[in-house]
Amino acid sequence: SVPQDLDLELLETVMGQLDASRIRENLRELSKEPHLATTPRDEALVQLLLQRWQDPESGLDSAGTSEYEVLLSFPSQEQPNHVDVVGPTGDIIHSCRRSEENLTGEQGGPNVVPPYAAYAPPGSPQGLLVYANQGTEEDFMWLSNQGIQLQDTIVLTRYGGIGRGAKAVNAAQHGAAGLLVYTDPGDINDGKSLPNETFPHSWGLPPSGVERGSYFEYFGDPLTPYLPANPSSFRLDPANVSGFPPIPTQPIGFEDAKVLLCNLQGILAPAAWQGGLGCDYRLGPGFQPYGIFPAGSQVNMSIYNRLELRNSSNVLGIIRGAVEPDRYVLYGNHRDSWVHGAVDPSSGTAVLLELSRVLGTLLKKGTWRPRRSVVFASWGAEEFGLIGSTEFTEEFFSKLQERTVAYINVDISVFANVTLRAQGTPPVQSVIFSATKQIPAPGTSSLSIYDNWIRYSNRSSPVYGLVPSLGTLGAGSDYAPFVHFLGISSMDLAYNYDRSKTSARIYPTYHTAFDTFDYVDKFVDPGFSSHQAVARTAGSVLLRLSDSLFLPLNVSDYSETLRSFLQAAQQHLGALLKQHSISLGPLATAVEKFEGAATVLDQHISTTQKGTPDPLQVRMLNDQLMLLERTFLNSRAFPEESYYSHVLWAPRTGSVATFPGLSNACSRATNTGAGSAAWAEVQRQLSILVAALENAAATLRPVADL
Amino acid sequence: SVPQDLDLELLETVMGQLDASRIRENLRELSKEPHLATTPRDEALVQLLLQRWQDPESGLDSAGTSEYEVLLSFPSQEQPNHVDVVGPTGDIIHSCRRSEENLTGEQGGPNVVPPYAAYAPPGSPQGLLVYANQGTEEDFMWLSNQGIQLQDTIVLTRYGGIGRGAKAVNAAQHGAAGLLVYTDPGDINDGKSLPNETFPHSWGLPPSGVERGSYFEYFGDPLTPYLPANPSSFRLDPANVSGFPPIPTQPIGFEDAKVLLCNLQGILAPAAWQGGLGCDYRLGPGFQPYGIFPAGSQVNMSIYNRLELRNSSNVLGIIRGAVEPDRYVLYGNHRDSWVHGAVDPSSGTAVLLELSRVLGTLLKKGTWRPRRSVVFASWGAEEFGLIGSTEFTEEFFSKLQERTVAYINVDISVFANVTLRAQGTPPVQSVIFSATKQIPAPGTSSLSIYDNWIRYSNRSSPVYGLVPSLGTLGAGSDYAPFVHFLGISSMDLAYNYDRSKTSARIYPTYHTAFDTFDYVDKFVDPGFSSHQAVARTAGSVLLRLSDSLFLPLNVSDYSETLRSFLQAAQQHLGALLKQHSISLGPLATAVEKFEGAATVLDQHISTTQKGTPDPLQVRMLNDQLMLLERTFLNSRAFPEESYYSHVLWAPRTGSVATFPGLSNACSRATNTGAGSAAWAEVQRQLSILVAALENAAATLRPVADL
Ligand SMILES: [Ca+2]
Ligand SMILES: [Ca+2]
Ligand SMILES: [Zn+2]
Ligand SMILES: [Zn+2]
Ligand SMILES: [Zn+2]
Ligand SMILES: [Zn+2]
Fold first, then answer.
1. pTM of the model
2. Which candidate among A473, B615, B630, B665 keeps its CA 20 to 30 Å from the CA of B66?
């Protein structure tokens, strides 16, 4: 009998049935109320998802929830956080807004959580204000070099450049007593800042809008690293958790930031530190003596955040594979939002529900069952640090690592409606390309998503020529534990804006109370055709992964990455290493071995595909493809960085696109003497890398070779 | 077509062809010269193995070597180690032998390495002698409690009780300047100690015999933990290696030990510390004033050991599997010996060569090819700390972990010729039972190996009733990295003596220059029928693992282990834990879940076996069986103990047969207050265990269950 393979007709059927208006209706329902993690509306959405996935006519084979007891952080309802300017006599001269302006009727009410920095400790620091740009280590060094005293100050930074938590860590390290973070209109609105140029009049961020967010530096439930957060699990004492922001921190809107920043005294900040508030940014410390605040005025922060153990649910739905039920294609998104979360994450969940409806309907009709199992997931408490997905990977570590073919993440499905933006590890590039070549781009053009994408973001591949540029995965959404902790080939898919037309860091109402259904419906994706395009892309990728006889994972695309990392290392680090008698020769040899093995495997796959392979031959090849990504894990490579064990995609501090462990170790060693521990670490990182690549190459070679 | 399954006729053919006299000839050749790791004779044996495995008529599909650059330790040839009694005026009154007595003409010559403690540092400590029994922590505590000053003394201990390295660590911790270790005739010869009652007149250890050995506390090349020891690999500075003995150490024979120990002054050692030297053992410090040594005589040790980087080879031979070449059955033994090593390890290598000859011949004739791949290995430098096997697991970590069905170790194949002794993880019990029920026991009895075994070593299983007792695997041979580092189901097979007839710690000439071919031929296994029995057992187990359609790994036998560990924990630790409000309830629930999942899986396998399963259905089940052992690994469970990550088989200090992490943590916590870090560690270990068992159970459940 002919083995079950991808059915192109069925694929076309699915593409045709994915319905923009149903996605719109999903989004309306999902975003009609705020659904902060673990709140009643979040739990109501758990039930909504369960009901959809258990529907007798359009549901999956089975669906269920799993609950974890996790540590979240909330502002006090009784004592609202506040930030004020206090005069020398102790009177309050200016109070920052405690909530966003109610512009559309959706920014008020008890379920809109006031802006806060999750996991920032309570406290009431008061001090002179200093402006520290993005709060990077370099920014603080620059301030120090200017002779600016940071001890006991309140530091004001703008979002961007580095993660939220890192700003607090850096500020505290330099002596600051408190941290304020705001969104500069230059970074988010292309400079626009007036009420009539921003939402609800455009997609711009209103002056009162505040980006909420988690300031925890790592991911997963903070009290149970590497263990699932079951009620009986061992929990750290919160005092022993590393990665919490060390000082009280509060985000504010640019309306308030303008009052503070435009009244600072001191020397002018460098040009790169200036922004869109319409004044000269000065460094402080303290306010201009003849401005609106009396001389000696200070900023007081009163923060009353509390840590709370809460029950957070994941919802999981499964379609059993017909032929290889023990191979899983995972598709997930988080469910929790900061406020209404129409874009983040509901635009993704709306797509998820439409895709599961279409597939579920075909399943229930008996039209289709995938070759491999498909698992849909709605993660809880992502906004606090990818908690639901991380706990899931901790609980089912072995079976996920043994059996998962790939993880597809669609969080924000549409940032804007111009072009696809895809991120992933190299083996998924080819399946995204195949899928997007077959789907028309939304809008009036007759291009495919692929052809449209290549116009906005491309690169020259030594192997393929000009191709769309697949981005790399950081740790910004639920794919992180799958890539970094489990070593599963993963991707994140979305529609995005034209980066040549806007310099916005992200869509403007991100994590604010203005991220609502109307915002999406009017400004992000009117007609929802970009949502539909993402649903089709993700759906096509999913079907190709779940149904193809041969897994559409191209492991030889890793060769290109390794070669480019190697070349970057040779070019940018080679001379330095040579000075310390460290050769990149073994690394070059390992890259060559990988390339050689990948090429031979590719040929072997081609030959096998042309014949009539038996089921076990295909399974063996697929296992090699599926498991390649695992071979890059080394749990001892990065002892300091929680969960990061993928030696190619761990965080990298330098700007050279090369192997992160090597790059980071070189940065730390640069100013130390020969024979230092830091130089030994460079050599250790190099050996870890060589061993990982040799080990990877060994898995690609013919399986009965020694 | 009928899927390839175990062929019982072929199995019988193999059993019939395994030839005792060929094993004897192999042993004669293998043990005719000393073959200490990396010496020319060790390299010559590499060539011998290669030649056998590349033989066109009886070889394997392919064979090759892999070389690692590893840190070994040797005594100086120019400056022999020596141990002397020195009188108060500095004159030498007694010198311990520098080499064993040449009783058979094989104990002399440049290739017989003098007795030494590998990795013990050089140095010339001198001090009063103290007797410390086995050198355990309890022994030293007892000495301290007697008011005996250990500072700057030379400590004399006997072998046994704990590992070699631990004796040196304990002695150093209590202030000793040097350590001597001897073999007591009470522990090895059932008290016999005269020249005419020992080898070459019996299997007893001659008075001059000295047990050599590695005193490194961990395993693998000491300079490259977790990385293969390739020439370019990062190496630790030897000064930073933990696990080396901290003080000069030297093993001596009981001939010399008697002179030292029987002349000690001080109080009488406890009854349990007395031995077979024919005198009262006293504690010291120092010698009796009116004995053979002048008052104030001290012991001087002059140790000149040197660390050396050497190239050590593994030899690997492979038979490609016909159906599932990407599933490996591994069979290995080390090749290196301390001297001639007829028993250790050549009795195992002689069996290995005979088994590979028989299988190779069938292969070359075209009579047989296994369903799965078979890999034979001859490891280098085991005696220094399982180095060759450990480096191999480090180099091919991913592919071995993904693909290895089981590891069979046959190091010493015959300790003595009375009964089988098998050790392993629970999933291999059933295949060893199946194999041994079909093979006649050597000797005149008409019993099977199984029926003979059960007479000497048995236990009452709640599931099966009376069965032979399968021992647990420690870290005494090359299975250790496979079990503890890779989580591969493993076993060690040998023939052994009747423990009711002798109290010998091990066969008497272990690691001495008296472990020769004649010793085996005359005293250990005249006729070699026990060697043949082990060859048949190992061969049958190997064929069952390589050829059976359904893997003969019984994962539900882990239920019995988990239940007994749980009961032991409840019985012996429950009350203590309850005092600290720690419940074993979640652990009990996890054990139940495992049992339930294992039972359902067993039923599913039975049902499937009765039908006509397709190849993928079988493969999926087999993957569940093969990978179960991996699920018990947690690389963060035991941060202090190198390579140990199997949460069920890591070293356990207490005497209660229960979960090691829990047991060890409880021991450490016992005398600390509530709320101590030690009690938090107990809770952490409990959570690690619960998570591992839940994770394991999840892999046994139907693969498309959530
Ligand atoms: Ca956790
Ligand atoms: Ca190593
Ligand atoms: Zn999101
Ligand atoms: Zn978000
Ligand atoms: Zn051995
Ligand atoms: Zn040995």
1. 0.97
2. B630
